Amino acid sequence: MNNILLEKHVNTNGSSNIELKKIFQKNQIIEYLYRIGPTSNPEIARYTKMSSPTITKLLQELIDLDIVMDMGIGESIGGRKPNLFGINPNARYVIGIDIDCRMVKLGIFNLANDAVSEIITYFGNVKNKNEMFIELFSQLDKLLATANLDPEKFLGIGVSIPGLINSKTGQTYLDLRIDNQTLPEVFQEKYHLPTVIDSDSRVMAIGEQAFGFAKNKKDVLCLNICDGVGLGMILNGIVYRGKSGLAGEFGHINVVKDGNLCTCGKYGCLETVASGGALIEQAQQGIKKGQESIIKEMVKGNLDDIHVADIIEAVNTGDVFAIEIINKLGHFLGEALASLVHIFNPEMIIVGGKVALAGDYLINPIHNTLNKYTISHIKKDTELVTSFLQDKVKLLGSVAMVMNQVFDESVEEMKFL
Question: What are phi and psi of 83, to 5 degrees?
């Protein structure tokens, strides 16, 4: 793969060291322009601590490589109008893939983080790995063929996937290995691109940090409520992974003594009472016991066809039963979150995932329960919001995950220059 990637060789040759220094300096400029947007030579100098003549020379070299563009004269903020420089959005591309328990999304994004392809969305069951990956590779092959972009311009592939994921090794604990290879190994072998993989809840946190409410914040908890319940933690500005890369299994803390059996094999986990799966089960049981609800009409009496989206739609139309089970779910979440507020003192809790589309019907009971169970002096500093990125957050997070690796000096195989 020759997309002008940096080869990090330690070299005693003087001229080679000078070239490596230039590459490092160019990477600094590229990262700044990618993250900040079009800006001037003096602003780049303040960030990089390089001299203005050095920056002028490096910018021209990057313009010659078609990576940076001269954007012309910008608005004056006092004094002479600055000349602005920005990233060429189509200098490089990233493939983003969001694998949910029941849905797969994939697309190709440029350096403006805009989709330059169709966003393909289709149903796929992660529990049937062979069938799912055959379809995924077929869809990705079709996407790449239709987009018809220069393969040399691709930086890498980012994959968000549910379950226990060791992001350091690419090992999953859902037995998602193909021919005894990890998923990153499979993608790299098939598409000849560096591939990074992480759990959907951490990818949510990465997406919120790059593009959402967590941008420029230090301590944020990102609650991902889909079929299960996951937690992405941003602590002191860094996405926290833990010793084995497995942190954030919030859904498996015990909240109900002698409760229902969880998918993890334990009893009484939060996931058994406060997840999308639990919500569906409560809707089915309630309607079977005679609860009146438009949900029954929506699925034409077939309760096995109830999905989270049906319950959310019922909630938003004012269905009393649907509102009651969402309220109950929010109460359990609030009780569990109260402990995290006391431990981490976060500045924000972002609630995302399918169930978060219930909006205030979910947020209000969480908020009320937090008020009941948390110390007010700690709680008052914590803002509770739903993600405005909604169902796009993990796809965008998979793109941000690749770009974070691109600019990480410790990662040798995924570089911009």
Answer: -85, 130
